[in-house]
Amino acid sequence: MNNTFTPLPSRTPPGNTIGFVGWLRQNLFSSWGSSLFTIFGIYLLLQFIPPAVQWFFLDATWGGSDRSGCETEINGETADAPGACWTFIRVRAAQMFFGLYFASHADQIWRPILMFVLFFAMLIPLLLPMVARKIKNAIGLVLIFIFPIVAYSLLDGSWLGMPVAHSSEWGGFLLTFILASVGIVAAFPISVVMALGRRSEMPIIRSICVFYIEIWRAAPLITILFMASNLLPLFFPSGVNYDKVARALIAITLFQSAYMAEAIRGGLQAIPKGQFEGADSLGLGYWQKTIFIVLPQALKISIPGLVNSALQLFKDTALVGIIGLHDFLEITKVASRSPEWIGYDFEGLIFVSIFYFIFCYAMSKYSQGLERKLDTGHKT
Amino acid sequence: MVKKPSQHHANIPLHRNPRVRAVVFQVVAISLLLWFLSIIAGNTVSNMAERGITVGLNFMGQVAPFEIGYTPFWDYELGVSKYWEVLVVGIQNTIFVSIFGVFAATLLGFIIGILRLSPNWLVRKMASAYVETFRNIPLPLWIFFWYVAVFLPILPPPRDSFILGAGFFLNKEGLYTPKPLIENSVTASIFFILLLALVVGLFYLRRWAKKRQDATGEIFPFASTALAALLIIPVVLFYALGSPLHLEYAEMGKFIMTGGINLNFSFFVLWFALTVYTAAYIGENVRAGILAVSRGQSEAAHSLGVRHTPTLRLVVIPQAMRVIIPPTISQFLNLTKNSSLAVIVAYEDIVNVFAGVALNNTGQALPIIAITVLLYGTLSLGTSAILNWYNKRVQLTER
């Protein structure tokens, strides 16, 4: 006789609590209020999405080389076709990405393209986790110290004996990219010094750094850009005449350095006191302690903050149009104001928005992933 | 024999003594800074002399040769008004749009934040789509988008205004609201004084109710009493004093709307853009704040027999607010700073009208930029003072 207790097999859960129906009941129709919200939400989506898809894909014009493809005849009068006119974007893509000079000199357009290819060829291994650290360090050094020289000589062209594209003629996404990346790289050393200075025990050094950081953080970027375009020419000896792009770069660097300094200060504050004391008891001097003990830990902690401020800067550069630079947004406005494409602002804005969205969304997701990866749990 | 401690120090060479090093380092730093500043000052003086500009604030007393379209609180007149009035109008317009933006963004932000935590999957996803869309596209692009692609095409001319109800109209001229007009200044001031007295009285009632509850445990229904008092007493007072105010509604005249308060088109677009943009950020703060209150807190309250609503009101919300308020105050400051993008929609804020138009007219770059930065600096210092005060206050209650 078998005395082992065998429980009855569990009954299956009721059909309406599992599977797709169960999911629906739990997540969309859990109560009267929830059901109402769901129905209202679906109504909103139905109102919005089908016309958007219709406009964006189904009715859109993709081919052709001028606006005639985007127009239809209604009662003998020309009118805009109901869908989007992506022809505009396609025809003006070179202008929107690389600015007026490279758009009008089609034989030179390989220069900015080569620059971007080189940049991404170096950036992608830096972002991948499986590449060895030594290789990453080497690439990083090349990217920061050698690449800017290569990029400048490619874009400007005068050092390589190519037709000169002066920086005032750079524009579009290329300019947005230059403003943001140069701003971030140039601001980094300043921000480290300022963050360390703000934590210093020497009162004069500390007050200088606090003043520096707070003054740039207090003013909106647009006033700093106005300052750069109106005041910088007064500060330099007469005769020295920096162009608009260089002035904007100075303004952006100063502005960005204050925000990055605050991110790094957050990292410095998060380091346990024992680390400083340990370094002191080993007999390390201030610079040895800072470079070998404090900064490596502080910078690692502040990476998410630094990425966020970089992202913010990338978005903020969209306002340099106000001081007359032809960045990505401004050049799109210019393009849709040209006589042959007048009236297609909407397509231009949608395109630029999608581009910014993909870029920023990817970057912020990457930064969140990084934050999780770097969180080694050594918090006190 | 015991060595005196000073003998230790005697062995340290001067360049290794931290105190000496600190002094030398700071003296070097400050002299470098002064040297740099003196070069800049020298260059500025010679450049100014070359261009024939004398730096100073004298221009503030001169008549400003340009018109300002939107001056709701100031009688600005072309040919009479001076540069200092341009500054005043600019400050007013900046504060005006910021205050409206802060209120609307807070309201919308709290709704978004709560919707992001909804148990309903669709609502949650739509709220996060809202947040991601606004946070990942630059604000200048948004402002321009609302201006050119949305409001310019859809808003009708005044003749066919959108009627929003309660005397609110929306059209190409902007938003029209009813305007309260004072009928009898004596009874009107009595009315406002009594309203103030009512609010003060309610404040004292609340203190008394709290004291009594602490002492005896008896609960006074303060919220419903206050709500009833605030709804009924003003109406009774209003009619008892013989209607000291009346509302003037905007009306369609022959060509333009007359009467009411007009919030112009640029103001409306800028306000709208700042509100929906900042609300995404505030929504994230609200969500993070609510998530920061651990579940054990409300479970503990429930197990003590506290009902759902008092649990929310007395346990969850006070703790969530501690996390929500500091970053939200920074967002208010950001909104105010972002209002400097006014120039995109031609709204006449301080940067547009003072650091832009006035600067180009006078060439007085140095004082004008300095005043603008100083004003924003004051604002930002004030904000961080409030933040520090608040953080200190809530830290005391932390256990």
Plain-language structure description:
The complex is a heterodimer of chains A (380) and B (399). The termini of chain A are far apart. Chain A is built from 15 helices and 2 strands. In chain A, a hairpin with a 2-residue loop joins strand 1 (71-74) and strand 2 (77-80). Chain A has a domain at 88-105 and 165-374: MetI-like fold (Orthogonal Bundle). With 380 residues, chain A is mostly helical. In chain A, 68% of the residues lie in helices and 2% in strands. A two-stranded antiparallel sheet of chain A has the order 1-2. Chain B has 399 residues and is an alpha+beta fold. Chain B folds into 3 domains: 5-46; 83-147 and 265-396, MetI-like fold (Orthogonal Bundle); 185-237. Helices cover 67% and strands 7% of the residues of chain B. The two termini of chain B are 52 Å apart. Chains A and B meet through helix 2, helix 8, helix 9, helix 10 and helix 15 of A and helix 2, helix 4, helix 5, helix 11 and helix 12 of B.
Topology:
The complex is a heterodimer of chains A (380) and B (399).
Chain A: H1 19-27, H2 32-58, E1 71-74, E2 77-80, H3 86-91, H4 93-104, H5 110-127, H6 133-156, H7 172-198, H8 203-218, H9 221-230, H10 232-235, H11 244-269, H12 273-281, H13 286-316, H14 328-337, H15 345-374
Helix pairs in contact in A: 4-7, 4-14, 5-6, 7-8, 7-11, 7-14, 8-11, 9-11, 11-13, 13-15, 14-15
Chain B: H1 5-10, H2 18-51, H3 83-115, H4 121-135, H5 139-154, E1 162-165, E2 168-171, E3 174-177, E4 179-182, H6 185-216, H7 222-240, E5 245-248, E6 251-252, E7 257-258, E8 261-264, H8 265-292, H9 295-303, H10 308-338, H11 350-362, H12 365-396
Antiparallel strand pairs in B: 1-2, 2-3, 3-8, 4-5, 6-7
Helix pairs in contact in B: 3-8, 3-10, 3-11, 4-8, 5-8, 6-7, 8-10, 9-10, 10-12, 11-12
